[in-house]
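In response to the reviewer comment on reproducibility (Comment 2.3), we provide here a single inverse folding case reported in full, input and output, so that an independent group could reproduce the run without further information from us. The structure tokens appear first.
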């Protein structure tokens, strides 16, 4: 089963992706994790990516797509995967389809978590990120249990500087504009299904699971 999970920042897509990964025994592929891994072990792509990041520049599609292709060629992806954070543009979407076509594969399901902007804003305002392991907690939805420390590694939790209302609204607007062509690409009888992403984690997952059970 090959899945793309789409959702704005704060939509809860990474949480749902991890649940899908666990319950369907397929790898959760996050672009952020791939970037960090390539940079930490010093691959040729990682070295190139780090140079752009240090300059505060966006990574070219060529680097991102090459990292994704390398990851999809790994053994644990032979029976499927769930993509989180990729594709982010129509050009990346077309490149992904070409990669899969070479392997005789296709995307089985594209799930869009549709969450109202005011809910996303409320979630992100209460977001805290671990300075060590990168785990994310939301004060009103998935709060941590240990004061200002991570439940996973007990290190300090912080609020990101850009987690403020003005920045959040701008990020959501930019995201929505960039993601619409992808939704259009996969609609019209394609693998796209829209899921209401408002509610508790278990409730949302039950809705997501229903869309996957018919594949």
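Designed residues, in position order:
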């Amino acid at each position: 089963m090959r899945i793309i999970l789409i959702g704005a920042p704060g939509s809860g897509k990474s949480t749902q992706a991890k649940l899908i990964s666990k319950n369907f025994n397929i790898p959760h592929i996050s672009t952020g994790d791939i970037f960090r891994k390539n940079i930490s072990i010093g691959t040729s792509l990682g070295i190139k990516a780090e140079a752009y990041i240090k300059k505060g520049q966006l990574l070219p599609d060529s680097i991102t797509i090459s990292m994704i292709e390398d990851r999809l060629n790994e053994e644990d992806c032979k029976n499927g995967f769930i993509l989180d954070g990729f594709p982010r543009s129509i050009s990346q979407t077309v490149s992904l389809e070409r990669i899969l076509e070479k392997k005789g594969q296709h995307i089985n399901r594209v799930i869009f978590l549709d969450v109202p902007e005011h809910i996303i804003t409320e979630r992100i305002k209460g977001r805290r990120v671990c300075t060590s392991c990168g785990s994310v907690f939301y004060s009103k939805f998935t709060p941590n249990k240990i004061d200002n420390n991570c439940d996973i590694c007990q290190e300090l939790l912080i609020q990101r500087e850009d987690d403020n209302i003005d920045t959040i609204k701008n990020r959501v607007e930019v995201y929505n504009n960039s993601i619409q062509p992808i939704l259009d690409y996969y609609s019209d009888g394609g693998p796209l299904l829209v899921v209401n992403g408002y509610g508790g984690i278990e409730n949302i997952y039950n809705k997501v699971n229903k869309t996957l059970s018919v594949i």
